[in-house]
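Bit of a strange request maybe. I'm writing a small parser for structure token strings and I need a real example to test against, not something I typed by hand. Could someone generate the tokens for this chain?
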Amino acid sequence: MDLLQAMQVSATGLSAHRSKINVIAENLANAESTRTQDDEPYRRKMVVFSEKRLNDFRSVYGRLKSNPSGVQVTDVVRSQKEFRLVHNPDHPDADPETGFVSMPNVDLLTEIADMMIARRSFEANVTALSNTRSMILKALEIGK
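Reply from user aminoacidic:
Good idea to test on real output. This should exercise your parser:
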């Protein structure tokens, strides 16, 4: 793998983890939203990653084993986990008979842990990108 391909791989990781951080931020922002356009509480969203093959001559011709790949967001799925029920008869969305309100299926601790993991993965890709850039600059100095 050459250094430019290494930069491409890191760039795909940056893009994918930025998308994941954005989805987590949306989940956190809607953790108390009891009504959406669908007339139900907000459902947690999760990002699905998959391998992304980089399009270069070597990957098209022969599919070499050392072919670099990256990561891409293939889907954002909604959690099918049940909503939390909270007893709050004064809430406008409460069931008039029981007084329970269906709350979103967003767990704040899970979201914060996912955010920390995504942030560290993003930082690792930034570091890899920076190191690759340094190696390219050093290689150019050798040629002088």
